Amino acid sequence: MQGHGPGQETLQVGKEEVNIAHIEPVGNYAICLHFDDEHNTGIYSWETLYRLGKQREQNWTDYLRRLDEAGYQRKQSLTSTEPPTPELTEMRDEKTTHFGYEEVAVDEKAGRVRAVFDSVANKYDLMNDLMSFGVHRLWKRHTIEISGVHRGQRVLDLAAGTGDLSARFSGLVGAEGEVIFSDINAAMLEQGRERMLNEGRAGNLHYVQADAQYLPFPENHFDCVTIGFGLRNVTDKQLAIDAIYKVLRPGGRLLVLEFSKPTNKPLEKLYDLYSFSLLPKIGKVITGDEESYRYLAESIRMHPDQETLKGMMEHAGFERCDYFNLTGGVVAIHRGYKL
């Protein structure tokens, strides 16, 4: 059992005869497994289940090694221990996830998302202003205001884009602090780095190309982690939230700034009309890429709503989780603490 954070992992023994009693859907992104020993606290996203299936042999070998190191002799189960059939293996290998409304292979999504941002990187700031009518600056300002970041702290800004949040954090932490400007996309990272240098921001800013699911940083390292308009593009969101929890120091906080679900029906209908009819056309005129902005609209609709994302953060171990709806829920800021 992995637990909610570093040091909470538990070696499970005496479970040879435990089976799954039933499976409960959790939203449209995960399932909760109810075992016949009455354990039912785990939530497994489709991406996590796929990853566990792909790594089954290695995980099983590691588990048997740990049992041996602990001096535990595993009993022979009365239930089948045969490896999965070729048919089941083939089904696992064909596991898909969403890319907007399109179903794609899990290992294909990151490349598709990368291509989107490669296409729009040089017009990214202009499109942000146009498609949000400049309001994105207010959303980001509110994120900064509730972050609690101050001088001397260490901040990780994931999906940093062209650096709106990183720039503000750089000023807040001062020369004694550090801001890691991180993005999975090399083109976006280069655009952001060039902008920071042009603005004379250097010294406490460092640039790292990284996948939010597999963060290359020490555990208990950052005072604050932010991810602005990036979580919806991550293949396994729960895996990323778990990874963020690990790199935060005790007392640290995560802030997720992301498009969400409008809180009233008239606004939702107007938002849908704008997103699917007007936004792609703006993208075509400004960037020559209509499809990338159609993906943007679809990816927003596929993203977990406010309560679901809050639950995912709590599942990772975050406490005192809350969220702030902005512009009628078109955008929400989620906040949680590692205590």
Automatic annotation (TrEMBL):
Belongs to the class I-like SAM-binding methyltransferase superfamily. MenG/UbiE family. Its EC number is 2.1.1.163, 2.1.1.201. It comes from the Bacteria. This is Ubiquinone/menaquinone biosynthesis C-methyltransferase UbiE. The lineage of its organism: Bacteria, Pseudomonadati, Pseudomonadota, Gammaproteobacteria, sulfur-oxidizing symbionts. Residues 5-50 form the Gamma-butyrobetaine hydroxylase-like N-terminal domain. CDD domains: AdoMet_MTases. It catalyses: a 2-demethylmenaquinol + S-adenosyl-L-methionine = a menaquinol + S-adenosyl-L-homocysteine + H(+); a 2-methoxy-6-(all-trans-polyprenyl)benzene-1,4-diol + S-adenosyl-L-methionine = a 5-methoxy-2-methyl-3-(all-trans-polyprenyl)benzene-1,4-diol + S-adenosyl-L-homocysteine + H(+). HAMAP family: MenG_UbiE_methyltr. S-adenosyl-L-methionine binds at residues 162, 183, 211-212. Methyltransferase required for the conversion of demethylmenaquinol (DMKH2) to menaquinol (MKH2) and the conversion of 2-polyprenyl-6-methoxy-1,4-benzoquinol (DDMQH2) to 2-polyprenyl-3-methyl-6-methoxy-1,4-benzoquinol (DMQH2). GO terms for molecular function: 2-methoxy-6-polyprenyl-1,4-benzoquinol methyltransferase activity; demethylmenaquinone methyltransferase activity; metal ion binding. Keywords: Iron, Menaquinone biosynthesis, Metal-binding, Methyltransferase, S-adenosyl-L-methionine, Transferase, Ubiquinone, Ubiquinone biosynthesis. Pathway: Quinol/quinone metabolism; menaquinone biosynthesis; menaquinol from 1,4-dihydroxy-2-naphthoate: step 2/2; Cofactor biosynthesis; ubiquinone biosynthesis. It is an enzyme of class 2 (transferase). GO terms for biological process: aerobic respiration; menaquinone biosynthetic process; methylation. InterPro entries: GBBH-like_N, GBBH-like_N_sf, SAM-dependent_MTases_sf, UbiE/COQ5_MeTrFase, UbiE/COQ5_MeTrFase_CS. It comes from endosymbiont of Riftia pachyptila.
